[in-house]
């Protein structure tokens, strides 16, 4: 559900003094109020069971929810944001895509929802990239000959951007919804997204300096999810490995290297990222195939309630 890239703020401060701080204990505040507006109509699951699973390269079970029309023109593999899963705000988006001719495959990131793996953790940041490639294979095999698009919401878009090089020509385009462009993008609506995520610097520094050998699986980020939201399935904490894996170090450079269409949508009332800053950042990259839309009245989560038909129309135009 977003903004995990901004929680990797310490990646900019890898100094000797910072490394010495890795022994410091982590302390996370008690959450009494949600850091996000969760009033969107699609904020809860509706009892739908997963459509299938695929095995990751390390054997972990990756689960997805499929919405497939009778005659799809393309497919979209899509990833949720920080701490969420496909049943928490995304099923309506998938149905809207299918109703408009696009087969949607909503994947639970490992360590989330119905997918396997320790909650909020990954063996390494690189494993998330390998998972995206595996997930794209599901849609490609299900619809031979049809173009496959890949996208994500918030931090899910971060995972997708980190996977661009690995995906190469297998992908026909990218869908970014309220995208997290990472620490160095300066696109946050609130400085450091302090209303949503609390960062413990020590494990992030240690994991980065040691390439994950030290503190990679130690809790490093806590999200402002209430106890009730956690009981509903939201993941309240991420390890250093998961936080680093979802952070985009140089989104502008990645965007400039994409030779496929890129569509971006963000709500005008997004409380995590500044719509104006996100759009300006995206257009500053030398990206010839980019289109951007600011959705009136939509927040970070509620944007998912309305953009399905728009995203499907954009995919059909580029398929």
From TrEMBL:
Residues 1-23 form the signal peptide. It comes from the Bacteria. One of its GO terms (molecular function) is hydrolase activity. Residues 71-302 form the Serine aminopeptidase S33 domain. Keywords: Hydrolase, Signal. Pfam families: Hydrolase_4. InterPro entries: AB_hydrolase_fold, Hydrolase_4, MAG_DAG_Lipase. The keyword Cytoplasm does not apply. SUPFAM superfamilies: alpha/beta-Hydrolases. Transmembrane segments: none annotated. This is Alpha/beta fold hydrolase. It comes from Leifsonia virtsii.
């Amino acid at each position: 559900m977003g903004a995990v890239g901004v929680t990797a703020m310490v990646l900019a401060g890898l100094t000797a003094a910072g490394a010495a701080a890795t022994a410091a204990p982590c302390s996370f505040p008690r959450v009494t109020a949600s850091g996000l507006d969760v009033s969107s109509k699609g904020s809860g699951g509706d009892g739908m069971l997963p459509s299938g699973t695929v095995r990751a390269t390390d054997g972990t079970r990756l689960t997805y929810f499929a919405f497939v029309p009778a005659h799809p023109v393309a497919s979209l593999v899509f990833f949720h944001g920080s701490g969420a899963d496909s049943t928490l705000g995304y099923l309506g988006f998938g149905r809207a895509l299918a109703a408009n001719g696009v087969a949607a495959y909503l994947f639970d990131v490992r360590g989330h929802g119905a997918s396997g793996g320790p909650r909020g953790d990954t063996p390494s940041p690189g494993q998330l990239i390998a998972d995206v490639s595996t997930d794209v294979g599901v849609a490609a095999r299900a619809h031979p000959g049809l173009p496959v698009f890949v996208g994500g919401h918030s931090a899910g878009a971060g995972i997708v951007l980190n996977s661009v090089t690995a995906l190469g020509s297998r992908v026909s385009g990218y869908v970014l919804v309220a995208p997290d462009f990472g620490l160095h993008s300066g696109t946050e609506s609130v400085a450091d997204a302090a209303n949503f995520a609390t960062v413990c610097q020590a494990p992030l520094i240690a994991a980065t300096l040691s390439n994950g050998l030290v503190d990679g699986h130690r809790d490093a980020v806590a999200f402002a999810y209430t106890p009730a939201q956690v009981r509903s399935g939201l993941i309240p904490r991420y390890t250093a490995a998961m936080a680093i894996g979802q952070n985009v170090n140089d989104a502008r450079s990645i965007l400039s290297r994409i030779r496929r269409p890129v569509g971006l949508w963000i709500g005008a009332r997004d409380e995590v990222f500044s719509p104006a800053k996100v759009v300006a950042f995206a257009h500053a990259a030398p990206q010839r195939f980019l289109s951007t839309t600011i959705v009136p009245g939509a927040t970070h989560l509620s944007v998912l309630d309305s953009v399905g038909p728009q995203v499907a129309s954009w995919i059909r135009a580029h398929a």
